[in-house]
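Justification of resources, computational component.

The compute hours requested in this renewal are based largely on the per-chain cost of generating structure records like the one below. Each record pairs the submitted sequence with a full structure-token output. That output is archived, and it is also reused by downstream analysis tasks.
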Amino acid sequence: MRKTILLFLCCCTLSAKAQKVFNSGYFYDNDGKKVRGLITFVPSDDKFYYKTVKTADAEKIKIEDIKALVLIRLNENDSLTVLTQDGKDNKKYFGKVIAVTPTTHLYYKFKSTSSGGMVISQSPSYNSMGNGGSHITNNYSWQMSPYYSSSKAIPMYQDGNTTYELTKGNYIEVLSKAFADVPDLVKQLQNEEFKFKELDKILAEYRWRTKYQGN
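The structure output for this chain reads:
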């Protein structure tokens, strides 16, 4: 029993330490001021921790005190925007953009999950059809993400100045409006050729068609 308790405490200590890894980044406060430093956070939280330099004490910053958060990566910065859900100021969260259309923005909201999680990445490849055209094949690969590995991604859509959850019951209506600039994809959605669980595939199709259509 004692060994079990010690093992549990060790695991908790290691987990806490893992969450305290600070990375270079910056945030914008509610006045639009850009503040650089070192940041650590959990995407599903309503706060993050900030240091001016590595040796400084960490300061807790509440989500309601900022507009956006950016972590500096080697290849691409990781940007999150502070958003509200259902028009309620007490339901703020860090949203990660997954698609931008002429009519709306789509985001992921993150929810903590004790079972761990994964994020999906698409790697499109293009195969010649022999008639001068091409066909897209989406290769999906699952990979762990250091910040998002313990979070479940919940799709959200923007409507006015707030966001709402994208669900199995509303995804056809919402995405038909969002993807109005790609009529063929809208038709496929309304014909129920894509299921809600294939959201990543739908988004990949939209990105490809808007980027390459007419070429």
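The first strand starts at residue 23 and ends at 29. The chain is about 20% helix and 45% strand.
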